[in-house]
Amino acid sequence: MSAQTLGPWRAALIAVEHHWTWYRRNWRATVISNFLQPVLFLLAMGVGFGSQVRQGEATGGHPYLVFLAPALLVITAAQNAMFESTWAVFSSFKWQRTYLAVVSTPITPAQVLHGQLLWIALRLASGTAAFLGIAYALGAITSPSAVLAVPFATLAGMAFSAPVVAYAATREKPDSFNAIFRFLVMPMTLFTGGFFPLSQLPGWVHPLAWLTPVWHGIELARGATFGTLRLLPALGHVAYLSALVALGVALGRRYFRRRLAV
Amino acid sequence: MTDETSTDLSAPARPVARRTGAALLLRVVPPGLYAGRAHVLVERSYLVSTRGWMSVISGFFEPLFFLFSLGYGLGQLVTTVDGPGGPMPYAAFVAPALLAASAMNGAVFEATFNLFFKFKYAKTYDAVLATPLGPVDIALGEATWCLIRGGLYSAGFIAVMLGFGLIGSPWALLALPACLLVALAFAAVGMAAATFMRSWHDFDLVQLAVMPLFLFSTTFYPLSVYPGWLQTVVQWTPLYHAIELMRALTTGYVGWGALTHVAYFAVMVVVGVVVASRRLGKLLLT
What we know:
Membrane topology (chain A): Multi-pass membrane protein
Keywords (chain A): Antibiotic resistance, Cell membrane, Membrane, Transmembrane, Transmembrane helix, Transport
Number of domains of chain B: 1
Distance between the termini of chain A: 6 Å
Number of domains of chain A: 1
Shape of chain B: elongated
Order of helices and strands of chain B: HHHHHEEHHHHHHHH
Number of strands of chain B: 2
Domain ABC transmembrane type-2 (chain A): 29-259
Largest sheet of chain A: none
Helix content of chain A: over 70%
Oligomer: heterodimer
Subcellular location (chain A): Cell membrane; Membrane
GO molecular function (chain A): ABC-type transporter activity
Number of helices of chain A: 11
């Protein structure tokens, strides 16, 4: 293993460039799952199902479409983070072995991780920004402060992504990824206050929801969009999400080094 | 059937894909392509699944989560919706639709992703063809396994619906066979589609077909939400027929129209199986 000769930012940016080079040629393959899917979801649930919902206390006095849009932004970020953090990472270790090629250059295993996470963050930010634009065109966004939902959704997505990347780095087989999707991502999508207020669920579910990054993200995004966000709770949500990111990075650095250092 | 059929029957059984002018049946099942041992492939799938049982079991939970979330969460935002027999509780409205959608999703996933992986990467079928089995055994065996798995999921889901009192008629006994028919239709078409795929990127096209079907085929809200012309479009899509069929069976408002839905899926099965076996035979033997 060669000694580290690149600055941390330079190395991470080189890793990002690597992903960007691939993405520039293959972005079409990701348009449908990353972009079209949430828009279709917004149409079906927000407009179609929303037509059956009576505007009232449960939706904070907003039409259902407006109630749903900021939450869907966070859910989309978490779902995209899921795919970018499992199969893509696993493949770079095992199938395509790109990480192994990268660490034979002066880039260290930890820098590979940082580059990967930075790339995922950029993907989440651009994806949510595009979704916000479409939601605005559909009339689902009524306040300019909704722009804040993009960084909040990205943070929530990364709070999920970083620990999952660390986990993926420990896997020798991809078998458990489907289970993660079904037992973590699906419940996080459906039961954390996105489609209906958490208060409609039995009390024992609430603490479970509070553990999920998606719930914190939805609170932040909705609060920013509707202007109901208070400073202290907001700081609490951001702190919790940042702690999850930090935990994921710390674990990831360890596992990447263990797997890639020769 | 024409005269050409008889000449073909007397011809030696050659596994040749191109046989112009032969009868349809013989082109679908040329004698050399079927060894009558499809059950061996089912046994293989079963053995594989015992090692990855987690992914098999977990498939059951996805529609269940949706049912809880939609039925009991969203259901409180909406009191009643227009069902087949007038206004009905939202949970009872959405449950049969989720049953149909999960039959579709399971079948399409199994028939496209798994088939493509085994076909292109694991080279499972190349190994299978080194034995007396032929492409038709493969198509039948895989389809059967699809149905067994899909049938188990559907049966579990119907049991949950029964437990939550979401079934209002003895007609629901027919829901399981109906699910199998729907699954078979989607599996056949999915298998046919998988034989046209070149790489993983093409699976986005599968998503592009399945996702809108799931979201817009009156799964979550009644058809009356759409403007008139869009209603006609939706009424032509396959999942709409599956959902209508399930909703009719679980609520008990079954009319002769149900046969239209059954006919729709019968056509899908025939078209899918014909295209899939022909393509598989061609791709595997050349």
